[in-house]
Amino acid sequence: xxxALDLSLAPERLDDGAxxxxxxxxxxxxxxxxxSLTEGFDYFLNGYRPGPLASGYHLAEWLAWNWWxxxxxxxxxxxxxxxxxAMSSIGEGxxxxxxxxxxxxxRTAIMSKPSHxxxxxxxxYVGGPPTIVPSTLFEGTLDTFIPRIIGRLRAxxxxxxxxxxxxxxxxxxxxxxxxxxxxxxxxxxxRDADSGDDDTVESLIGDAVRLGxxxxxxxxAERAQAQETERDLLTAQAxxxxxxxxGFDASVRDAVKLEGEVALRRTADVAAWKLGAAAAxxxxxxxxxxxxxxxxxxxxxxxxxxxxxxxxGPDRSASLSFALDARPGAARSKIVLRSKWVxxxxxxxxxxxxxxxxxxxxxxxxxxxxxxxxxxxxxxxxAELLSPFEAVDEMLNGDYSPENQQDVADRxxxxxxxxxxxxxxxxxxxxxxxxxxxxxxxx
Length: 443
What we know:
The protein has 443 residues and is of the alpha+beta class. The chain folds into two domains: 5-173, no CATH class; 197-442, no CATH class. The protein is 46% helix and 14% strand. The strands form four sheets. It has a four-stranded antiparallel β-sheet, sandwiched between helices. Strands 1-2-5 form a three-stranded antiparallel β-sheet. Strand 3 (40-42) and strand 4 (47-49) form a beta hairpin. Helix 7 packs parallel to helix 9 (213-225), helix 8 packs across helix 9 (213-225) and helix 12 (296-303) packs parallel to helix 13. The longest helix has 21 residues, at 135-155. The termini are close together. The relative contact order is 0.10.
């Protein structure tokens, strides 16, 4: 993975506008080591430019205001998500790049797309390749760009601005561990800093003692995806109640473990789907499964749960799949599965097996709908464990028709969507409409 990311503003003259707008006006460019993400056709110039003429002040203000959400919030279908993640939402009279930015907590995606209209004026963006960078690098890019804009303001005699105030607040919050923890949870829930009901954040912080810090972050990200009526369910008390009413007894000691030294460390250099697939491949080798399908009995054994968990009726399904241990480090556990269908329950149980291998600490192991690094690794683990790609690819033999995919899905007892995602992750089908596929395309 390339680690170059440069956000720059070359000074240009602006005669009208507020002092801060004029002081930080210029040619805006965003580049990686391999491509420009802001290039477009300038109709005034009648030629291509590496970026538009815009006010760096407005961009820096937007970046500072949304810093926590840009740094931590994954892709979401929430109605107001784009306000904090789409650069085109900045407004202020400029034609901003059609760039969306989001993070899975470890890696940041920068999606540069062409202008919506092919005849867009006065600046028509051509778009750029899908870009993935370490989130720490993206953070460092903003830490360089925003102070430079503030420096431009001072050099032009512009005093304290709203940008200064917002950026000072962000820096204070980042230095304070407790404040940073709160802001991260707010961002994962899709909320602006210090907005909304503080009781929700306090509840999450309190639940972290019982459920585990990293699990609570996944719960926070799930809240952003959930329907309004479901959001109050995701508390430690609610998990306990669901586990008691709908859970199946499980044994942590009986759950499968990877033996020996296996490198499964989360890192920004490895896409989540690759990490999950590597863990599944290591487990299949250890269990001597070759390319054979895993039946319900084998899968249940790996999870340390009774086979009946996979055939539980609608009365045993819940709003979320999870494993909940009696306490951190306890041997007793409960497993709850969301889907009413066996294929869906198999997939979620495989996700929980993978989560225990990749995240052994904490009492709660959730399989959420969020697009965090942890959840993407879970989904990839489940797909590779249940339907190993090499065997799938061999069976398809170049025929990726829906009918052939369905036959392979039936063979491995997974949904056709699982096969479809495997093919996309490995470049057999060209389409980018999810984080996992963006990871694969960028790689």
